[in-house]
Amino acid sequence: MNDDSVYDGLLGGDSSQWAFGTDFEDPLAGVDTSVPAGVDAAELAVQCLRLGDDALILSQRLAEWCSRAPELEEDIALANFALDLLGQARLLLARAAAADPAVVPVLPEGSPVPAEDALAFFRDAGRFRNVRMAEVPNGDFAHVVARLLLFSVVRLATLERLQDSPDPVLAAIAAKGVKELTYHRDWAGRWFVTCAQGTDESRRRLLGALDQLWPLYDELSTTADVRDGADVVLDQVLAVAGVDRPQLAPLSGAGSHTEALSLMLAEMQVVARAHPMGRW
Amino acid sequence: MNVRERAAAVAAEVRDPEMPMLTLADLGVLRDVQVDGDVVVASITPTYSGCPAMATMRDDLVHRLTDAGFARVRVRVVLSPAWSSDWITESGRAALRAAGLSPPGPAAARSGPVPLTLGITRRELTCPRCGSRRTGRVSEFGATACKALYRCDACLEVFDHVKEI
Fold first, then answer.
1. Is A100 helix (H, G, I), strand (E, B) or coil?
2. CA pair distance A9, B17, nearest whole angstrom
3. The pTM is what?
4. N or C: which end of chain B has fewer CB within 10 A?
């Protein structure tokens, strides 16, 4: 043992001791990632990027809530949603990269950064495919409740349908995600009703947040079937809450980003980008 | 005992890093152990997509098998079917109770669209310490995100309940 460095003793020559063994492991290790016949690999990769980017970007926004929620239980709930979405993002970005390696940014020769991280940390805002609902800055607690409700009703409807995807990897990721999103949606629905039926102030804040986010709702659904499935559940929540659908038109420019994404990515990516050859 | 059985027996003893009273076999995470030539291939299924303990589980499997003399070990992820708390074995449930944790009830059966539940999740739990049914929820999150925190009104202890998924 070398007395010059406390870390030498801790490692004990074993590089995968768990405190230090949090190296990037392929979340799809050993999974057959060949693309089935009849599935367009490039289209599958784009589909996985869209779902993975939504999860990654909203996860980052929810992580900003850490230590700021009105009480400890809800603070942990928000961090837990961020963790679930980050797990989904890792699987989906890894699946996108395996389906179509052309989507992965090129890093310097010999870089140890795995494909999922290259996608997360080395793309500029213009190459992200997430919806604007995931990226707009946080507001008050009513804002995160409204955002999670609108986002989760559509994501759950999307993942429910993708359980039958012709790609077995995407189908399996979706089936796992359905279990997680079920709780996200229930939590958001419950707090939506609570805020709506609470005090005049909580209702005022909730309606304000809903109006702010409503123009971004339309962009979430990729098919009419998903939209119908999401609307049924959303209308149940609105009915219990005694809240009318806002009469506001969708915001134009679906598929584009707000400036908030660039600012978020600058913070999220700065360390990884400074060390493209780094081992963590 | 042949090589595969020996490897399977070693792998079955590896414990969950967050609930060390459970083996990965008890938890239902360890799905299969095969020997392919001179490589041991252990298959595991993630509990939650973002579970931070997965990397540790993989490392521990590699360590224990390597220590037991298997030079080449590969850990394979199996995504489908998705893990369910229903896969926790009877001996695992007994181990949870013995350690003061409340084991999960049956996970919700699904068919068709996932129903919306606006009420708080209600569970009729038995205190793992004193056996009383006078228990109440403190928080839907306990020591880890996969557990809820409950209180026993009889013995006044708090306890963790492993959530159904």
1. coil
2. 22
3. 0.92
4. N
Which residue numbers in chain B have pLDDT < 50?
none
What residues of chain B, 53 to 112, have a C-beta less than 8 Å from chain A? 55-56, 58-60, 62-63, 74-83
User: CB pairs under 8 A, 24+ apart, for A115-120?
Assistant: A116/A24, A116/A26, A116/A27, A116/A90, A117/A24, A117/A272, A119/A49, A119/A52, A119/A93, A120/A56, A120/A89, A120/A93, A120/A268, A120/A269, A120/A272
Q: How far apart are CA A32 and CA A244, in angstroms?
A: 47
Please indicate if any CB of chain A lies within 8 Å of the CB of B114: yes
| Whole-number Cα distances in Å, A2 to A5, A7, A9, A16, A280 | 6, 9, 7, 19, 22
A101 prior amide bond cis, ω within 30: no
Are the Cβ atoms of B77 and A30 closer than 8 angstroms? Answer: yes
Residues A41-82: pLDDT tens digits?
Answer: 999 999 999 999 999 999 999 999 999 999 999 999 999 999
Contacts of B40 (CB under 8 A, 6+ apart): B7, B11, B33, B34, B65, B70, B72, B73, B74
For range A116-142, the mean pLDDT: 97
Cα(B28)–Cα(B84) distance, rounded to whole angstroms? Answer: 8
The average confidence (pLDDT) of chain B is 93
All residues of chain A having their beta carbon less than 8 Å from the beta carbon of residue B51 are: 87
Q: Is B164 within 8 Å of B83 (Cβ atoms)?
A: no
Cβ-Cβ contacts under 8 Å, B58 against chain A = 25, 29
- Give A267→chain B minimum CA distance, Å: 22
Q: What is the pLDDT of residue A24?
A: 44
How many CB atoms within 10 Å of residue A209? 23
Among B48, B78, B116, select the one facing A84 at the smallest CB separation.
Answer: B48
The position carrying tokens 């997430």 is A130
Residue A203 DSSP symbol: H
Residue A133 near residue A213 (C-beta atoms within 8 A): yes
